[in-house]
């Protein structure tokens, strides 16, 4: 009850923190798409480059977020941005790369070779193949990667409060330091709900972006007349 | 016309150079269907793909309509050549209409014209445009998909069509139907077609010329009838099969084997007249026709001997008739089915046109064997 009362009394603050949170994740993953998708496409040209890039992205993923935030303080301090919004965005951008690059790479390499051959044989150049065939077919899988990136990073961004980036993590950190379970639960609840809402929102977007011919639908069986046996 | 002049393709592999096609020279005349035939790995697909430069020849020259294909940009070249593959390869993200419009779009047609063309083509492949234009490939059966695949290849009206086992993945019943449809369409459009197949029956049915490949070499290049009658070597004889003479039956229409000029009787004629006519030609039977000339029954000489009265009284029912435009394979099949040695033939209007007989068919097939002075390879 106490927690509920706290939430109701602090709705404007929760709203503000949620927007801060979303702006970090949104901007970072948005930039992550702009870098990750082209990288994912580029590495389909070379197995060796793909292995190297995916390896590096996986290593980044294993760095604990609190360590990554700490690492960036001295680096970004040189331009006077050691703490706050910018390092948070950069960290989230880095964490979003693995799911986005890997899903883009997998989606493009999994396009049926017959489609690629048909496209080539009909006189499409490499860029036309990419834009007319490969990317439209890859969209659902790329979007699935974006969803993973968003959900993971909504959690990671909760930690960004420790470098002064704000967001919903502020409730949690204050709840811990003040041993105030109301704030702690409010923060945790808000982060979870935000992740779930974002996932569903993006799932809806994923379905919208999937070309109609690829959407799972009720299977349609076309019967065709067979000649009666003579 | 497609001309291959001493074309060779060598692939460098870790285990050495592999010659996929060696010194291939051949010509496909305008409006002809040339089937490239052979077992897997014989170089037929490599040869096909060198024509639209999906595979670049190592040496030699390929011309289409007199122009060297090497002079074109490969991407531009492919837009002027229709291409159909076994896996069909319709783009699942596009509707039937968008699939057909791909090449026109690449060629920069205005969309109005491309769409009109798509509707036109669907109608020619027996898919109702109103129903199918907006469908997606997954909503079509395999046979419908490959019809659309062919329509897509024809979209920009290319003079040349390359087909890589186009009907290989379609069930046998639909394959026959699509082959027939394709032949019908081909008779109208007269494209120059190169068609890869590993199925001798398909080749015999479709081809004006058959090119038989083995281990990267062109072993024989001739008409289906010639390949069946005179296989150039034992490999080809084995490949076309021990039943190759039966296969030839498919190539010959009843009309070419029909024996004409035989007299007929009508129901009211006296049986004595029938006997006289048979005796005159030394024939064992005679067909009885109705006043319009449609065959109705027949009279056998043995059964009529010393009989009298009208012919109809002694007539026997005809087991079957065949049309002049059926192939001899069907005719022979009907003969075997009814255990007879001859059949009455009818023309398009159902009028009696003559007989086709087992000895007559044998004679016809032998003529080709004798004609060339080459003994058939056993």
Descriptive account of the structure:
The complex is a heterodimer of chains A (230) and B (378). Chain A is mostly helical. Chain A has helices at 2-9, 11-42, 47-62, 65-77, 85-109, 113-121, 126-157, 169-177, 181-209. In chain A, 75% of the residues lie in helices and 0% in strands. In chain A, helix 2 (11-42) packs across helix 5 (85-109), helix 3 runs antiparallel to helix 5 and helix 7 packs antiparallel against helix 9. Chain B is an alpha/beta fold and 378 residues long. Chain B folds into two domains: 2-247, P-loop containing nucleotide triphosphate hydrolases (Rossmann fold); 254-369, CBS-domain (Roll). Helices cover 39% and strands 25% of the residues of chain B. Chain B is built from 18 helices and 17 strands. A six-stranded mixed beta sheet of chain B has the order 6-7-8-3-9-10, with helices on both faces. In chain B, a hairpin with a 5-residue loop joins strand 12 and strand 13. The radius of gyration of chain B is 26 Å and the shape is elongated. The model of chain B is unreliable at 371-378 (pLDDT under 50). The interface between A and B is medium-sized, with 26 and 35 residues.
Our estimate of the beta-strand percent of chain A is under 5%
Instruction: Give me the count of strands of chain A.
Output: 0
Structural class of chain B: alpha/beta
Overall number of strands of chain B: 17
The CATH H-level superfamily of the largest domain in chain B is P-loop containing nucleotide triphosphate hydrolases
Radius of gyration based on Cα positions of chain A: 23 Å
Strand and helix order of chain A: HHHHHHHHH
User: Quick check: average pLDDT of chain B?
Assistant: 90
* Mean pLDDT across every amino acid position of chain A: 90
Low confidence ranges of chain B: 371-378
Secondary structure category of chain A: mainly alpha
Q: What kind of oligomer do you see?
A: heterodimer
Query: What count of helical segments of chain B does DSSP give?
Result: 18
Characterize the overall form of chain A: elongated
Please report which band the strand proportion of chain B falls in: under 5%, 5-15%, 15-25%, 25-35%, 35-45% or over 45%: 25-35%
Question: How is the largest sheet of chain B built, in terms of strand order?
Answer: 6-7-8-3-9-10
**Rg on CA atoms of chain B, Å:** 26 Å
């Amino acid at each position: 009850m106490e927690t509920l009362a706290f939430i109701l009394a602090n709705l404007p603050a929760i709203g503000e923190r949620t927007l801060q949170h979303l702006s970090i994740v949104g901007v970072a993953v948005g930039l992550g798409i702009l870098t990750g998708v082209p990288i994912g496409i580029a590495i389909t040209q070379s197995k060796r480059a793909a292995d190297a890039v995916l390896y590096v992205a996986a290593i980044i993923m294993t760095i604990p977020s609190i360590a990554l935030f700490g690492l960036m303080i001295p680096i970004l301090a040189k331009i006077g941005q050691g703490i706050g919004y910018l390092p948070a965005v950069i960290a989230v951008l880095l964490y979003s790369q693995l799911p986005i690059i890997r899903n883009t790479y997998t989606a493009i390499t999994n396009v049926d070779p017959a489609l690629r051959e048909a496209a080539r044989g009909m006189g499409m150049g490499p860029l036309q193949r990419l834009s007319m065939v490969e990317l439209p077919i890859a969209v659902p899988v790329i979007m699935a990667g974006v969803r993973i990136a968003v959900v993971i990073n909504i959690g990671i961004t909760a930690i960004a409060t420790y470098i002064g980036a704000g967001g919903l993590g502020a409730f949690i950190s204050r709840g811990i330091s003040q041993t105030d379970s109301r704030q702690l639960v409010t923060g945790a609840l808000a982060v979870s709900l935000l992740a779930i809402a974002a996932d569903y929102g993006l799932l809806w977007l994923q379905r919208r972006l999937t070309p109609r011919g690829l959407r799972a639908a009720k299977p349609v069986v076309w019967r065709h007349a067979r000649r009666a046996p003579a | 016309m497609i001309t291959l002049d001493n074309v060779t393709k060598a692939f460098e592999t870790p285990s050495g150079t592999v010659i996929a096609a060696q010194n291939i020279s051949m010509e496909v005349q305008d409006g002809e269907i040339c089937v490239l035939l052979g077992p897997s790995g014989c170089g037929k697909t490599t040869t096909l793909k060198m024509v639209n430069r999906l595979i670049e020849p190592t040496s030699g020259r390929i011309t289409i309509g007199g122009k060297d294909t090497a002079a074109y940009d490969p991407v531009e070249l492919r837009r002027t050549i229709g291409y159909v593959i076994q896996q069909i390869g319709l783009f699942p993200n596009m509707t039937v209409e968008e699939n057909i419009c791909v090449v026109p779009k690449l060629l920069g047609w205005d969309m109005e014209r491309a769409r009109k063309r798509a509707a036109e083509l669907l109608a020619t492949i027996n898919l109702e445009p109103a129903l199918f234009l907006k469908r997606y490939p997954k909503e079509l059966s395999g046979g419908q998909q490959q019809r659309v695949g062919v329509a897509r290849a024809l979209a920009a009206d290319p003079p040349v069509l390359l087909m890589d086992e186009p009907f290989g993945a379609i069930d046998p019943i639909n394959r026959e139907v699509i082959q027939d449809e394709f032949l019908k369409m081909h008779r109208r459009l007269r494209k120059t077609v190169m068609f890869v197949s590993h199925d001798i029956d398909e080749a015999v049915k479709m081809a004006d010329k058959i090119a038989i490949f083995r281990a990267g070499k062109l072993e024989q290049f001739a008409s289906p009838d010639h390949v069946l009658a005179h296989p150039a070597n034992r490999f080809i004889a084995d490949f076309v099969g021990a039943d190759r003479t039966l296969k030839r039956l498919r190539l010959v229409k009843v009309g070419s084997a029909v024996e004409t000029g035989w007299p007929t009787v009508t129901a009211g004629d006296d049986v004595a007249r029938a006997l006289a006519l048979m005796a005159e030609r030394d024939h064992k039977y005679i067909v009885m026709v109705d006043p319009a000339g449609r065959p109705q029954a027949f009279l056998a000489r043995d059964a009529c001997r010393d009989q009298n009265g009208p012919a109809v009284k002694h007539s026997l029912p005809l087991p079957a008739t065949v049309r002049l435009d059926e192939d001899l394979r069907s005719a022979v099949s009907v003969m075997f089915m009814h255990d007879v040695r001859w059949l009455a033939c009818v023309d398009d209007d159902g009028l009696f046109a003559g007989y086709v007989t087992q000895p007559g068919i044998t004679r016809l097939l032998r003529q080709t064997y004798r004609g060339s002075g080459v003994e058939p390879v056993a």
